[in-house]
Design brief:
disordered N terminus, 26 strands, Sulfite Oxidase, Chain A, domain 2, binds the ligand Nc1nc2c(c(=O)[nH]1)N[C@H]1C(S)=C(S)[C@@H](COP(=O)(O)O)O[C@H]1N2, binds molybdenum atom, Immunoglobulin-like, 410 residues
Length: 410
Amino acid sequence: MDRLDLLLARTLARRRLLATGALGLAAGGTALAQSGKFAQLLMTGGPEQRPLTSAFPGKGEMILLRNRPPLLETPMSVFDEGVFTPNDRFFVRWHWADIPLDVDADAFRLTITGGKQPVSLSLAEILKLPRISYAAVNQCSGNSRGLFDPRVPGAQWAHGAMGNAMWEGVALKTLLEKAGVDAKATAVRFGGLDKPLTQVDTFEKSLALDHAMNGEVMVAFAMNGEQLPLLNGFPLRLIVPGWYSTYWVKSLNHIGLFTGKDSNYWMAKAYQIPDTPNADVPPGTAGFAKTPINAMNARSWITSAEPGARIPMAASLPVRGIAMGGDTGVKRVEVSGDGGKSWRDAKLGEDKGRYSFRRFEAEVPIAAKGALTLMSRCTSSSGAVQPMKANWNPGGYMLNRVEPCPVEIV
Ligand SMILES: Nc1nc2c(c(=O)[nH]1)N[C@H]1C(S)=C(S)[C@@H](COP(=O)(O)O)O[C@H]1N2
Ligand SMILES: [Mo]
């Protein structure tokens, strides 16, 4: 057994343990719910809780959705601790089970084809190139899919399939210029070290040439000042700031310039959204015009209170959270303590750049004991406002409604 298999076997053993515990919970009492071994969730139709695991290499306590290929979600409490998501709590998502378990950093090469000359670069050579660095949110297209109503198939994430990091690497433009961009090229394809186990398309994504050459798209080797964790794409990954992380190809080892349309499954068939404002169609709609998913939308979450929290009565309640503008900055965050009837402006935290999370805080006055619903609403720098009503599409992409956080004042 290799290293990761051993670790995954431990995860499975632990999962069995948790399942036994869950039976205990059903039979008699709430002790286990307080043991900290489950994350509580707010999904129509459940599950109401999911097991937490610390068994994956380089990862602390994560919400376990699937062992292999791994789907690990960040608990919401992590986002309350700072504007950046620590590497060991950063979510993990792979499509195919044959993921890199070990990478020989000396033998590794990044190849670039389709340019004026083929290029093959070692990590040592890449580390000598001019560097760029910025903060950016990495968010799965299907983040919050488990909250779709009616429900849709796909990974049933709550809100933790996202994270914010300070990325450092080389501008893709610098690398493409090394290869020499042919006048005929119109797009750039990206592939990594992971492989499907059957005869299906490898996970590859592509970007239009002008997007790839914008000087911001990055081939990153560092995240929050450290090398990338293996599960987050060591040694190199693509960063496409402002766009969903399906484009952020991990363990990137091949870049290809090409002409024409990309017919790979992952561009032509998967990750298609309705070509409507905010990818929104009435539930059940079929046969609409589609387009590949692209830029993210504005979102915000209250992180200082979990849904269902019991909070002691006081004149006012301090509320904290995080917001993102999508592919632009955060202009404004408002907070409500009455389920969206009235709003007050929150104070914004330090601006870490347009692609970063931005923290916010506010004081919500409390009139009386009892149930109340906290909410936050982000307005992006380009004026987009989070909708009160959820957008819907059959892929479960781009949910960004104002999230209710029901609490009990006692
Ligand atoms: N090589 C490779 N890169 C990939 C994927 C993959 O399956 N293989 N999944 C993508 C998707 S859909 C997501 S959400 C992000 C997840 O990034 P993370 O695991 O670092 O959080 O990686 C993207 N890059
Ligand atoms: Mo994703």
